[in-house]
Design goal:
- By secondary structure, the chain is mostly beta strands.
- The protein has a domain of 84 residues.
- It is built from 2 helices and 27 strands.
């Protein structure tokens, strides 16, 4: 901390006398909910040429101030050209390390999900109670080679117990439109003992044990074809060795793009977060059209099985369309989507779900419609994994809602209501209303809502002050 402060002081002093621009950015965001939590985030950034420093304070405590709160401080130094950084505090991981955290609980990894590894300061209010860690990322500038432009990086992340995660990688730009990227990652630590939650629990009760994770990633990018894949192997004492792998492929350039993705995990694989979520296998596909005037059409589907080679027992499919912005009707449709899915992982609790949403605009008034229908069933054998009427289903719930938004100069007024009907209990009505105001460097938002009218009420507020500037000398 002392060294960072000295470096920052030198930057500011030299900038003043040399009359080199100093860029600064200050933000204060606060939000609270009635009888619950009050959260604050104060963020400051100062930059000089290609360097910048960030300071962040996160605080979260009962809104009545009658209990203990959580406060966290984070700071970092950055080199913008190479992406190099030294961070201390609550750290968020992106890229390969993030994709290995309970991967089957995350969205399937299409090509665009294979981002390059990088770490940064967490900004969410819940990070106030996160124990600080140390993160170092060192990247090189672009080197010209006979094969193309070459960049490389190395990273190290140490948690509060000094357990380390180490990564390295390189990318080669063959020309302005083609690139090859490879990455590797290793982490290891001692996992705490795990008691049994029930008889014959999975995972079973385990003692304190050593855990190692090795991973490789590769990606190829060209105008027409893009491919990326990850491969990871975990070795956990008293539990075993297992694998996780994924691949994402995208073909085509605008206006049409087609994507495929697949991933699979063994039953004894332990992720980057030290959690074993069990085996699984998924396949996803997506087709997209990008037209003029913000027109967009997308169809995506996902199938899931307990393991590779087993029948699929879950699926979800979504059709989405965003209308062009130059429609001349008085009431303009903006978007519409329809999704359907089935979860037959438990044959005694099979669930079919259908969702619909749409948006419209009339002058300064925006209207959103949404509905969700859930049916349930039970069956002796695994049914077709898509929600077609191959089995008899029973109604479980239906939810429908409407939201309004009206903009008047710096103000935006919101209101909404929804209705949820159930098969075996009383229906529930919900209502909400709110107002927000936005200025050049500030924003205020107030909202009152009831999720079960008139029994349950809550009120929330938030405000943001955000100011940027540049100073040249004094």
């Amino acid at each position: 901390m002392r060294n960072i402060s000295i470096i920052l002081l030198i930057i500011v002093v030299e900038s003043i006398y040399a009359e080199i621009p100093v860029f600064w950015d200050v933000l204060w965001n606060a939000s609270g909910e009635y009888e619950k939590k009050l959260s604050d985030r104060i963020h400051a950034k100062i930059g000089w040429q290609d360097f910048s420093a960030r300071f962040q304070l996160l605080d979260r405590r009962p809104i009545t101030f009658d209990g203990a709160g959580e406060t966290g401080f984070s700071t970092g130094m950055y080199h913008n050209q190479t992406g190099s950084r030294l961070l201390f505090g609550a750290i968020d991981e992106f890229g390969l390390a993030a994709r290995l955290r309970s991967p089957l609980n995350r969205s399937i990894t299409f090509f665009e999900s294979h981002a390059i590894s990088r770490g940064d300061l967490k900004t969410g209010a819940t990070a106030a109670g996160t124990a600080p860690s140390l993160y170092l990322y060192a990247g090189t500038p672009l080197f010209a080679t006979p094969a193309g432009g070459l960049r490389a990086f190395a990273s190290a992340h140490f948690d509060p117990e000094w357990n380390g995660s180490f990564g390295a990688g390189a990318s080669l730009a063959i020309d302005t439109k083609k690139e090859i990227r490879i990455e590797a990652l290793y982490t290891g630590k001692d996992l705490p003992a795990r008691p049994a939650s029930a008889w014959f629990s999975n995972p079973p009760p385990l003692p304190k044990r050593n855990f190692d994770l090795f991973a490789l990633s590769a990606a190829w990018t060209s105008p027409l074809l893009k491919i990326a894949a990850d491969f990871a192997s975990s070795n956990t004492a008293a539990y075993g060795i297992d694998l996780y792998t994924n691949i994402g492929i995208r073909y085509g350039n605008r206006p049409w793009q087609f994507s495929l993705a697949a991933d699979g995990m063994g039953s004894r694989y332990v992720g980057r977060d030290g959690v074993a979520t069990g085996a699984g296998f998924r396949i996803g596909a997506k087709a997209e059209y990008f037209g003029g005037r913000s027109t967009r059409f997308r169809v995506n589907t996902l199938f899931r099985a307990r393991a590779a080679g087993e029948p699929f027992n879950r699926s979800s499919t979504t059709i989405y369309y965003h209308f062009p912005t130059n429609i001349s009707f008085p009431v303009k449709p903006t978007r519409v989507s329809l999704s359907a899915g089935r979860n037959a992982s438990d044959l005694k609790k099979i669930e079919d779900k259908f969702d619909f949403s749409a948006g419209f605009v009339w002058q300064a008034l925006s209207v959103s419609l949404s509905s969700s229908l859930v049916n349930t069933a039970s069956h002796d054998s695994t049914p077709v994994f898509i929600p077609i009427p191959d089995i008899s289903t029973d109604f479980k719930s239906l939810k429908a809602g409407m939201d309004f938004s009206y903009r008047l100069k710096i103000f935006q007024f919101r209101a909404g209501f929804d209705y949820t009907g159930y098969d075996s209990k009383d229906p529930v009505w919900g209502i909400s209303t709110g107002i927000s105001a936005t200025g050049t460097w500030w924003r205020v938002n107030l909202k009152i809502a009831s999720s079960d009218l008139p029994e349950k009420w809550t009120g929330t507020f938030s405000f943001t002050l955000h100011k940027k500037g540049k100073q040249i000398g004094w």
